[in-house]
Amino acid sequence: EIVMTQSPATLSVSPGERATLSCRASQSVSTNLAWYQQKPGQAPRLLISGASTRATGIPARFSGSGSGTEFTLTISSLQSEDFAVYYCQQNNNWPLTFGQGTKLEIK
Amino acid sequence: EVQLVESGGGLVQPGGSLRLSCVASGFTFSSYWMSWVRQAPGRGLEWVANIKQDGSEKYYVDSVKGRLTVSRDNAKNLLYLQMNSLRAEDTALYYCARGIGGGTTWGYWGQGTLVTVSS
């Protein structure tokens, strides 16, 4: 099983600032990596697929990068609606696995 | 518009059974892999099961193998999760999800159905 490790567990950032979230895979997943955003009481929302491709309707302030075992989600200028929990997920191997999540909170 | 609506959740005793359903609309159901993903209260996301378009391939997370079974009825646009020998650790919100394109990156999610396993 590929273990996905996200860091930090909690990130405190002020609105308008940049946020950088990390995700590490225990073995290479190539670019088969997605990022999701989840707000309380809501289903997850796909942000990024293929490590770097924004999903339909996702603002350009969200960007993904990386390949192999190291990945990054960057939110360039935080808006109030961006404060949420973010998960990475690999779909390179069965079983499909998620990271434990990073909670992005307002500083 | 793609819609996924789950049902069938509820309170069940340990060792009991439950069948979850997910009705799909707004797309050609028979053309997509479908998935179940769960989230225990206050916890992260966990993939549970996947089923190929024609039901010929199924994959499960190890913790549910032999107890949970995914199936589908393409004529009725329905996805199922038969849950047997339920344990307290199966307590979670269960989401039905569909991938974008042909894959297992989930662009579409239902709102979930809550399963609580408790005596």
List the helices and strands and how they pair.
The complex is a heterodimer of chains A (about 110) and B (about 120).
Chain A: E1 4-7, E2 10-13, E3 19-25, E4 33-38, E5 45-49, E6 53-54, E7 62-67, E8 70-75, E9 85-90, E10 97-98, E11 102-106
Chain B: E1 3-7, E2 10-12, E3 18-25, E4 34-39, E5 45-51, E6 58-60, E7 68-73, E8 78-83, E9 92-99, E10 106-109, E11 113-117
Parallel strand pairs in B: 2-11
Antiparallel strand pairs in B: 1-3, 3-8, 4-5, 4-9, 5-6, 7-8, 9-10, 9-11
Number of E-type strands of chain B: 11
Q: Please work out how many helical segments of chain A DSSP would assign.
A: 0
How many separate helices of chain B? 0
The whole-number mean of residue pLDDT values of chain A reads: 97
**In percent terms, what proportion of residues of chain B is strand?**
over 45%
Largest interface: A-B, 23 and 20 residues
Low-confidence residue ranges of chain B: none
- Measured distance between first and last alpha carbons of chain B: 40 Å
Described by its quaternary structure, the protein is: heterodimer
What is the CA-atom radius of gyration of chain A, in angstroms? 13 Å
Q: What would you call the shape of chain A?
A: globular
Taken as a percent bin, the fraction of beta residues of chain A is: over 45%
Rounded mean pLDDT of chain B is 96
Largest sheet of chain B: 7 strands, mixed
Q: Based on DSSP secondary structure assignment, what is the total number of beta strands of chain A?
A: 11
Parts with pLDDT < 50 across at least 5 consecutive residues of chain A: none
